[in-house]
Amino acid sequence: MKIKFPVSTVRMAIVAATLTALPMLYAQAPAAPAATAAPTRFLGTVTAISGTTVTVKTDAGEIHAVDVPTTAVLKRISPGEKDLSKAAVIQFTDLETGDRVLVRLDPNAPAGGMEALQVIAVKAADLAQKQQLEREEWQKNGVGGLVKSVDAGAGVIVVTTGSGATAKAITIHTDGSTVLKRYAPASVRFDLAQPGPITAIQPGDQLRARGEKPVDDGELTAAEVVSGGFRNISGTVVSVDSAGSTLVVKDLTTKKPVTIHITAEVQMHRLPERMAQFLAMRLKGGSAGGGAGAAAGQRGGNAGGPGGGAGPGAGPGAGPGAAGGRAGGQGGGFGGGAGAMGGDPQQMLSRTPVIQLADLQKGDAVMLVSTQGTTDVTAITLLAGVEPLLEAPAASNLLSNWSMSSGAPEGVQ
Asked: Are the C-beta atoms of residues 88 and 76 closer than 8 Å to each other?
């Protein structure tokens, strides 16, 4: 079963095209003299500062302790700024944990150690403020779903959003000013997405788009689009290896086992039993206002559910949980908003209990979005407690908006 995110609400993710300009500055950093070897550079987040040493965790997970001598050039740029000439000179004491930095190492430093020649920083507080603004923009003027068709010549993309009774088609218009990006093959982090042409977008891909205005009559003129091809798997757990951070799932479609790798960034939730029954009923075309849905909605009342704010990895920026204001808590699962008013399933998912790999057992039914692969994949979003949903065909698209990230660089932590 193939899809291409939730927005978690996003897990509307995700993780913006201009959130950080540091990657673009690789090409702008001064070149080393021809007589010396090319210097090593890396991009990451400051995790510790001690004396004159800065510890940086790169986006690839590597940890580097770098000495910053008084001769090193330190500068700060604003989030999204692409022109290095506009960077302001700063002092070592201006650096703080959480700052994003591009470090250029001195190729002539003594062997066995790392010494900075140049450090370009983006202040953590500035990033947080910009991320919040962009989350709000994606939430207000964004839309996401599965790609139904692409007319590259006309710049038109049709996506289907929601599942079951909430499903609908949105026509997205793009032009020469639209920023088009593709997620990296093994990631839904927006900050790692790379520019890609509209011809790279294929039916079945997951896609998020943001316009200058909200969707109008089923159409959106996009300022920014991020897309990617991922895999959707439904099946039962065969085995769990907590020490190795993997589990084996028997895919109900292929009838073959798939090894699932679990990373620190994965979103793992479990549906409460009554919520699973309610969603299954809705996805099969049942009434959203009666039965378990109405009962749970009454219990949920107007209490905000956990995750009602910006869900990790959720949709573009804020994710499905962003609409948690009047939705029910974990007790009711989906509360009045969903039970009595037919709320979006993606919003319900963001408010379900978070679980760990060790909470899964052999025989559990799971649904997940993963990287592409046949026998070995990495999970992006995993949902347990889905036994009732496996009988609802529309459930195959349930995670389509919940697992994408956009509007904020989630790698900045």
From this structure: yes
Cβ contact 6:314 at 8 Å: yes
For residue 80, how many other CB atoms are within 10 A of its CB?
A: 17
Each residue's pLDDT tens digit, 43-76: 999 999 999 999 999 877 889 999 999 999 999 9
Q: Indicate whether 351 pLDDT > 90.
A: no
- Which among 212, 288, 259 is positioned nearest to 377, based on CA atoms? 259
Cβ-in-10-Å burial (0-12, 13-18, 19+) of 35 comes to exposed
Interacting residues of 228 by C-beta distance below 8 A, sequence separation 6+? 4, 5, 182, 183, 184, 185, 188, 193, 205, 206, 404
Task: Establish how many alpha carbons lie within 13 A of residue 123's alpha carbon, considering only the half-sphere containing its beta carbon.
Answer: 16
Burial 43-66 (b: 16+ CB within 10 A, else e): bbbbeebeeeebbbbebeeeebeb
- Diameter of the chain by CA atoms? 76
8 Å CB contact between 323 and 10 = no
**SS3 of residue 173 by DSSP:** strand
Beta strands 257-261 and 230-241, pairing class? unpaired
